[in-house]
Amino acid sequence: MSQDNKKKRIVIKIGSSSLTSLHGEMSRRKLERLVDEVVRLKDDGHEVLLVSSGAVAAGYRKLGCLTRPSSLPEKQAAAAIGQGLLIEAYSDLLFSNGYVASQILITRSDFSDEDRYNNARNTINVLLERGIIPIVNENDTVTIDRLKFGDNDTLSAKVAALVDADQLIILSDIDGLYDSDPRKNPDAELLESVTEITEDIEDMAGEPGSSVGTGGMRSKIDAFKITMASGIPAFLGKSGSANIIYDAVQHTAKGTYFESTEDSVNLDSKKQWIAFNSGPEGVITIDADAKDRILEQKQSLTIDDIYSVNGRFDKGAVVRILDNRNDEIGLGMVNYRSGQLKNPTDIKADEIVVEVDHLVCHVEVPIPVGV
After folding, report:
1. Superfamily of domain 279-361
2. From CA 333, how far away is CA 278, in angstroms rounded?
3. Domain 3-269 superfamily per CATH
4. CA dist 316 → 215, 272, 281, 319, 336 (Å)
5. Burial class of residue 183 in the structure, from the number of CB atoms within 10 Å of its CB (0-12 exposed, 13-18 middle, 19+ buried)
6. Do strands 306-310 and 283-286 pair parallel, antiparallel, or not at all (unpaired)?
7. pLDDT, tens only, 189-248
8. pLDDT in tens, 351-362
9. For the segment 28-45, what is each residue's pLDDT rounded down to a tens digit?
10. Nearest Cα residue to 347 out of 335, 364, 355
C-alpha cells in the first residue's frame, strides 16, 4: 500500500463560507457535497474528525434576524438554535451512508486545563477508534470573547495536535496561499508548498476575506505554525473545488501544502500543551548563563539560575521565562510554588526548578506564545 493510501487520521476544518449560501443560510447542497467526500475517506478506512463552523449561520434566520447578527447575545442565541440544526444535518447525511456522527462542544478553558485536555483527547480517541466521526465546534452559546479560540482555524490546529493527526485540511474560499492578494493582483502566484513560516509569508497573510466567517489568512497561518511545530502536514484549499478533500489526502489537490522539514521540531503531547494551550500564570527571569545553557545545551533550570520571580502560582503551573533584558525565551512547567522560589531556603542548589522535558523555548517553537 502506498503512503498516500495508508490509513490516516484526518482533521478537516470546514468554515462557515463552505457551508452557507450567498444569503448566509446553511446550504444543504454544500453540506451534502462535503459529506460525500468524508464518506469516501471513511470507506477507504481513514479516521475523520470535522471541526465545523456554521452554527450561527444555521440558526440566525430562525431567531428572526434578516442578516447575520452582530451583537454577542444574538450570536449566542443563534448558535443555540443552529448548533442543533447543524449536527442534525450532519448526522442524517452520515447515517444514511452507514456512519455515526458525534458532537463535541468545547471552549478554550477546556484546553488550558491539562486534565480536561487529556480527557478530551481520550474521548475523541475512543470515538475515532470505534469508527465514529466527531464533529467539533467551539461552544459559542456560552463562550465569552476573552475565552474564545478566536476562530476555528486555530481550533482545528489545536485539535489536530490533540489527537496526533496525520493531516489537517483547512477548507476556505480561496485556493491557497498566494504571494499577494489574488483579489487585487491578477498576477498573484499560488504557493504550492511551504516548509517554513517566514516573515515574508506572514506579510502575505491578509485580513478576513469573508463576511460569513471570522477567520482570514492570518488566522490560517497561525494555525499552520501550530501544525508545523507539531510535525503534522496540513493543506489549504478551496472548498468549492471538486474532490478537494479526497485529493488533498492523496496530495494531488490544487492548494498549498504546509509541511515541516525533518530538522523541524516535532513536539510531544506534553510540550504541545505547554506551548499552545496552557496559559502562563507567572514569570521567571533567569541569568544570561542559564539562557545560553537551556538554548544551546537543552539543560534544565535550577534554583541558582533564577534572577527573579513574579506572580503567584502553584507547583505544576506554566510560567513565562525571560532573560535579564526582559526578552521572552519560552515557557516552562515549574516544580515549586512561587513562594518557595521567592524564598528558596529549603531548595538545594542542584534541585531542578524546570525540567528540560517541560521546557519549550522560542528557538524550538516557531510560534508566538499564547497562539
Report:
1. PUA domain (2.30.130.10)
2. 10
3. Acetylglutamate kinase-like (3.40.1160.10)
4. 33, 15, 10, 9, 7
5. exposed
6. antiparallel
7. 899 999 988 888 877 775 544 444 444 788 888 899 889 888 899 999 998 888 999 999
8. 888 988 888 886
9. 899 999 999 999 999 999
10. 335
